[in-house]
Specification:
The complex is a heterotrimer.
Chain A: H1 2-31, H2 44-56, H3 65-80, H4 82-93, H5 106-132, H6 135-138, H7 149-176, H8 186-195, H9 200-226, H10 232-241, E1 256-257, E2 260-261, H11 283-291, H12 297-301, H13 303-306, H14 313-332, H15 336-340, H16 344-351, H17 366-369, H18 377-381, H19 388-401, H20 410-420, E3 459-462, H21 464-469, H22 471-487, E4 491-493, H23 503-508, H24 511-528, E5 532-535, H25 538-547, E6 556-559, H26 560-569, E7 581-585, H27 599-607, E8 611-613, H28 643-652, E9 658-661, H29 664-679, E10 688-691, H30 692-700, H31 706-712
Parallel strand pairs in A: 3-4, 3-5, 5-6, 7-8, 7-9, 9-10
Antiparallel strand pairs in A: 1-2
Helix pairs in contact in A: 1-9, 2-10, 3-5, 4-9, 5-7, 7-8, 7-9, 10-11, 11-14, 14-16, 22-30, 26-27, 27-30, 28-29
Chain B: E1 10-14, H1 26-36, E2 40-45, H2 51-62, E3 66-70, H3 73-86, E4 89-91, E5 96-100, E6 103-107, E7 111-115, E8 120-124, E9 142-146, H4 153-166, E10 169-172, H5 174-178, E11 199-203, H6 209-214, E12 220-225, H7 231-235, E13 238-241, H8 244-260, E14 274-277
Parallel strand pairs in B: 1-2, 1-3, 2-14, 3-8, 4-8, 9-10, 9-11, 11-12, 12-13
Antiparallel strand pairs in B: 5-6, 6-7
Helix pairs in contact in B: 2-3, 4-8
Chain C: E1 2-6, H1 15-29, E2 35-42, H2 46-55, E3 60-65, H3 74-88, E4 92-96, H4 107-115, E5 120-122, H5 134-142, E6 145-148, E7 157-161, E8 168-171, H6 176-189
Parallel strand pairs in C: 1-2, 1-4, 2-3, 3-6, 4-5
The chains are: A mainly alpha, B alpha/beta, C alpha/beta.
Chain lengths: 741, 278, 193
């Protein structure tokens, strides 16, 4: 017994020593980071709830059923089996130790054994998953591609070791008579039956060996954990608690330096703009990197990775983590002499540029940084709430605003924004062209000398650059205007008073220009007294509703699909014409994932007679980006295959007559994709791409040439009359010709 | 030392150095034709090393309405000297002249300028300037491009012939680049190549906003498209609604015919230009 | 040593002017004591172009403030540039060669004639100019733009855009040749063939 106690305590001391040395180092690395923004520690309630649901209830993990269930089994196993560690240590001191009060209850014994079996089943599942999805088989498409595979197998092996040593000593304990549970521990009883024939003295030895072995494995595991990606066991709860709530999507954070927002009009001397070195990240950023489990869920969803580009959110985070840890001794050295005394490799690590070509020693290659479409699929999936998009944009900010290094073709967009206020440089005079040919007058703010929005105007219609200038998006603007008119909703537009909301500039990292545009727009909107705003562009929607509050612009912003769905639900719009269309719907990232508007567009489609909606395999939260977000619309896509074509193929897989979306950027990208596939003979000639609102409009308009005249009449209260038997097939050409080039 | 000069509205024309007594260069004849529209052309022939001096001297004596000079790097220096010494306004790349309300009006691609100095220096870009096929698409003076309406990679060879005939470069729209009808780097789009030619001819290009954005710097836009509602036609100075596979071959024939015999109506040989030789 | 860079009037900095500033800075980089001074003339909005050019690295700027000056009037502009440059004193004058504004491509030659010294005329590159960094923009806010007012003569040239030159749209119908003939006539009229 004494030997067993001494060995046990010695092992423990050694392991705790090693582990705490490592943890202290990690803590000091974390301290290198900048302070975080003040929001991180506010709203304790929702943070506690997040930990409860995402850690204890494994909410995000369980989105993937099999892997999630296996993880939940192992995770809960670790919690429950904490009791066996207690029992193990107790048995070092006192051979017949049991946990006070509940320590001999059948249910506890049963629970422990149940989770031993569950954990074994869990790791068996993991092993099968890892073999089936092994990078050596599936190559790049494996979510584990690029992860530390050896370490992962070692961890699985260690968990297996914990389990079998547990069963060994528990079985032996039963045979020696020191087991705390008389009933319930079914698996241990089976082990006891197997060990029984060895005899009492052998079981005596096995009991001690098992206990020491089990504790040894656990302690070894502890050391392994703090030195590997399994650090997430300890860090994940903190990372989740301190993450952006409800999720790190939607708005981007302003530029923070030293925990305070940078004032671009009067910047501080030492303000850091974006992240130009690993130590520029906040300690929460460093916590993000250290928490990454290398599970690769982000990678499996990433549009860039899935089209052969070098960006994988997982590899990006791993790269930053490895660099942070490797550079840490260099940063922690308190003098130049100490730094000079460091090994060559560490000094070299200290000299590596954060962003630069890999050939020049860069940690993050520019091709990686600029491949991101900021679609947020990675953030959505991450079980430990890492904020990939924020880190990428922060690095872009440094590259754009400090280094002036970014894909040169994006300059065209920036210059147009600076000079003309829209990305194509058409100028604000062109912003009214879309209203031409509408059968009613669109009210333009200021045309009749208004100084504020008139009282009868319910919505300000924010048309956006694309909605005013892009030929397909102009059709959407017209449809929405006609539908609002039809429903009797009074609205007004700003016309030439609008400027780009700045989404593309901000996502490119050009925060300065974004802020100029945002302040200008907020000033305009506040001056006209805008309260309720309807927008058609998902990017404008996101910026207006989520980002303008950062500049004192608080409005009730709705997307046109939300408003139209509401009008249909209220009976103010009655889709009556049978459109007879096979339709699929593409969720725009900035409408769906970033802003959780999933059902209104589907409700609209569902309300239209003759729409047969088929969902694409990747939809709603898992929608696959069209390739235009993150200012990628304004950059050349030269690496790998085209994102828009990949998504187009997925849409064409549903055999649609009409591919719908609810964002002008998506419509441009999908229209391009469909056109290319048609030219290649891979898509039927009749397939079209259109906004959801155009489908609704077709169903509302009375068929025949009288439609225009009828709509022009102020038919107050008149209901559109269904025309039974009116040749619906003849009307089945969906939205008008949509090709534009 | 100069021959006597008629006093009715003289307009000086600097002769090309390659001119000889019998045959005037095409460029000079065109300058004379232009001068005739606003006065009596007076051809000034001299060694171009002294051209500025000579022109200034003649102008001080005879107060011409305008001094016409073909533009070239060397001639521009002469134009600058004359304009500065006479304190006369200068208008470049002029295509037409008229006289209106006591003011000379110089018309160029996109605007007309009223001259408010007694005399003025007018520079004219010579036609048939050497083809610029070696220039980059983004710097070319003439660009011909096609879009989806061209229909095929073969259709682009027709456009290439038009580009050759006009001495310009060939490009395409974003879609044409995507479909491999033209090289990706020759996609005129945003993002993509932004062009600023004097003449842009678009065939089968409907004119999406990203394409129109990239041709914003173009001077004269000519568009041929079968869709009368194509946005490019609203942007075009000269639009043809029709099948480019019919129009372009006809255009090629017409250009070839023109190259063979310059039509008289455009460049009449001046009957008796007054010569001022120095 | 002072290098004067002539900036064309307008709120937007032209590409050729960007190249001229960059050229001047390249010269300046070789010596410590060089001051790069921008010089422009025109309405108040020219300040935007000046700030942009200062963000590229120029040291200071002189703005001849005048609302009447026409951006097409090369004669008057060359005179203003010359007078102020002579007054400031300089070792080198640099100017963008081409211009998107008609007539202004004559500026380098005209200023050179007036000053009696060569003016470095910098051609525009086809590559787009670099986007200035934020610290450079912030620094440029502090740089000195001194304003001058000069007595100027009446404009030598008054420009109006062509009265919305009606864009010709013709339908081919059955006669592509006729369309081609009209197109060639149109091109000839504009001296494009």
């Amino acid at each position: 017994m004494l030997v067993r106690l001494i060995i046990g305590l010695a092992m423990t001391a050694a392991a705790l020593g090693l582990a705490s040395r490592r943890l202290l180092f990690l803590y000091r690395v974390g301290r290198l980071g900048q302070p975080v923004d003040p929001e991180r520690t506010k709203d304790v309630g929702s943070r506690a709830w997040a930990v409860l649901t995402e850690v204890l209830a494994q909410r995000k993990l369980l989105k993937w059923t099999v892997a999630g269930a296996a993880h939940a089994a192992v995770f809960w196993g670790f919690l429950i089996l904490g009791a066996t560690i207690l029992e193990g240590y107790g048995a070092l001191f006192q051979r017949d130790f049991h946990i006070p009060l509940i320590g001999t209850d059948t249910w506890l014994g049963f629970l422990e054994d149940l989770f031993i079996v569950a954990v074994l089943a869990g790791i068996a599942t993991f092993a099968v998953l890892r073999i089936r999805q092994s990078p050596s088989r599936a190559g790049r498409s494996s979510r584990f591609s690029g992860s530390h595979l050896g370490a992962a197998w070692l961890v699985l092996f260690m968990i297996f070791n914990v389990m079998w040593t547990l069963l060994l000593y528990r079985g032996a304990q039963i045979n020696t008579g020191y087991f705390p549970y008389r009933h319930g521990a079914f698996a241990s009883e089976i082990a006891a039956k197997i060990l029984h024939p060895l005899g009492h003295s052998a079981n005596d030895v096995l009991e001690t060996v098992g206990i020491l072995g089990s504790l040894g494995v656990v302690l070894g595991f502890l050391v392994l954990v703090v030195n590997s990606k399994h650090l997430h066991i300890f860090l994940a709860p903190f990372n989740i608690a301190l993450s952006r709530r409800p999720r790190a999507l939607g708005a981007l954070l302003p530029v923070y330096s030293d925990g305070k927002e940078v004032d671009f009009e009067d910047p501080g001397e030492d303000d850091k703009i974006g992240r130009g070195a690993i130590e520029d990240f906040t300690w929460k950023g460093l916590l993000d990197f250290s928490t990454c489990t290398e599970c690769g869920r982000c990678q499996s969803q990433c549009p860039a990775w899935n089209t052969g580009k070098p960006l994988s959110p997982k590899l990006l985070i791993m790269g930053l983590r490895d660099h942070a840890l490797a550079k840490a001794p260099y940063l922690l050295a308190d003098s130049d002499d100490a730094r000079a005394a460091l090994p060559e490799a560490v000094r070299a690590e200290g000299e590596r540029p954060l962003v630069g070509p890999v050939a020049d020693g860069g940690v993050i290659d520019p091709d990686v940084l600029w491949s991101c479409v900021t679609c947020g699929a990675c953030v959505e999936q991450c079980p430990v709430d890492i904020e990939h998009v924020d880190h990428i944009v922060d690095m872009r900010r440094y590259q754009v605003m400090i280094e002036s290094e970014f894909p040169h073709e994006a300059q065209g967009m920036l210059r147009n924004l600076e000079r003309k206020g829209d990305p194509w440089g058409r100028g604000n005079k062109a912003r009214l062209e879309w209203t031409q040919g509408l059968p009613f007058e669109v009210r333009v703010f200021g045309e009749n000398g208004e100084e504020a929005l008139p009282g009868d105007v319910e919505y300000l219609f924010w048309v956006g650059c694309a909605g005013s200038l892009d030929d397909n998006a102009k059709k959407t603007s017209r449809s929405v205007a006609e539908l609002l008119h039809e429903a009797g909703v009074e609205f007004m537009i700003l016309g030439s008073g609008e400027t780009c909301t700045g989404d593309a500039a901000r996502r490119l990292g050009q925060e300065l220009l974004f802020q100029e545009l945002a302040k200008q727009n907020v000033e305009t909107l506040n001056e006209v007294g805008a309260r309720k705003i309807v927008v058609t562009c998902a990017h404008c929607f996101n910026t207006l509703s989520n980002e303008y509050p950062q500049f004192g612009g608080d409005y009730e912003v709705v997307h046109h699909t939300e408003l139209l769905a509401k009008l249909v639900a209220e009976g103010k719009l009655r889709p009556v014409n049978d459109v007879n269309l096979a339709v699929t719907y593409h969720d725009p990232c900035y409408l769906g994932r970033h802003n959780r508007v999933f059902s209104p567009p589907r409700d609209i489609l569902g309300s239209v007679p003759g729409v047969r909606l088929t969902e694409m395999p990747r939809n709603k939260e898992r929608s696959f980006c069209c390739g235009a977000g993150g200012a990628r619309m304004w950059m050349e896509e030269t690496i790998g295959t085209r994102i828009n074509e990949t998504r187009t193929d997925e849409a064409l897989g549903t055999e649609p007559d009409l591919v719908t979306a609810a964002c002008p950027y998506c419509i441009v990208m999908l229209t391009d994709g469909v056109a290319t596939r048609k030219q290649e003979g891979k898509a039927p000639e009749n397939v079209r791409v259109a906004d959801v609102s155009e489908v609704l409009l077709r169903s509302i308009q009375k068929p025949g040439p009288k439609a225009v005249a009828a709509a022009a009449e102020p038919a107050a209260g008149a209901e559109p009359t269904p025309t039974p038997g009116a040749e619906p097939a003849a009307e089945s050409q969906p939205a008008a010709d949509l090709e534009a080039e | 030392m100069f021959p006597p000069m008629p006093l009715a509205d003289p307009v000086l024309v600097l002769a090309d150095e390659t001119d000889d007594d019998d045959a005037l260069a095409q460029a000079t004849r065109e300058l004379l034709a232009l001068a005739r529209r606003v006065g009596t052309p007076v051809l000034v022939r001299c060694d171009h090393c002294r051209a500025a001096e000579v022109l200034i001297d003649i102008a001080r004596d005879h107060r011409p309405r305008a001094i016409l000079i073909n533009s070239s790097p060397a001639n521009d220096r002469i134009s600058a000297q004359v304009a500065v010494h006479l304190e006369s306004a200068i208008a470049t790349d002029v295509t037409d002249l008229s006289f209106d309300d006591d003011h000379l009006v110089a018309v160029s691609d996109r605007m007309s300028s009223e001259i408010h100095t007694p005399t003025s220096v007018i520079t004219v870009r010579p036609r048939n300037h050497e083809s610029q096929r070696e220039l980059l698409l983004t710097e070319a003076d003439v660009v011909v491009a096609g879009g989806r309406g061209v229909g095929s990679a073969e259709g682009f060879s027709l456009l290439a012939r038009v580009a050759y005939a006009l001495g310009g470069r060939l490009g395409g729209t974003h879609t044409a680049g995507e479909l491999g009808w033209c090289p990706r780097h020759a996609s005129i789009s945003l993002p993509g190549a932004r062009i600023r030619p004097r003449l842009y001819l678009a065939g089968g290009v409907s004119g999406s906003v990203r394409h129109r954005s990239a041709i914003r710097g173009a001077g004269t836009v000519v568009a041929i498209d079968s869709d009368p509602n194509a946005p490019i036609l609203r942007e075009a100075d000269f639009g043809i609604v029709g099948d480019l596979h019919e129009v372009l071959p006809a255009l090629l024939d017409e250009l070839a015919a023109r190259a063979a015999s310059p039509p008289q109506t455009v460049t009449p040989v001046p009957s008796s230009p007054e010569l001022a030789e120095a | 040593m002072r290098i004067i860079v002539l900036i064309k009037p307008g709120a937007e900095l032209e590409d050729s002017d960007v190249c001229a500033v960059e050229h001047a800075l390249q010269v300046a980089r070789r010596r410590m004591d060089v001051q790069v001074t921008l010089l422009t003339a025109g309405p108040a909005e020219c300040v935007h172009a000046l700030r942009r050019a200062l963000a590229l690295g120029a040291d200071d700027a002189v703005h001849v403030l005048d609302d009447r000056i026409s951006p097409y009037d090369a004669l008057t502009l060359s005179r203003v540039y010359t007078e102020v440059a002579a007054d400031l004193g300089f070792d080198l004058v640099v100017c963008g060669a081409a211009s998107v504004v008609p007539n202004l491509s004559m500026i380098p030659d005209m200023v050179s004639v007036r000053l009696g010294t060569p003016v470095v005329s910098v051609p525009a590159r086809s590559a787009p100019p670099r986007h200035p960094s934020f610290p450079a923009i912030a620094e440029a806010r502090q740089k000195l733009i001194s304003t001058r007012i000069l007595p100027l003569p009446d404009p030598a040239i008054i420009v109006k855009d062509l009265p919305a030159c009606p864009n010709t749209i013709i339908n081919v119908g059955n006669d592509p040749r006729a369309a081609a003939v009209r197109l060639v006539e149109f091109l000839a009229e504009r001296r494009l063939v």
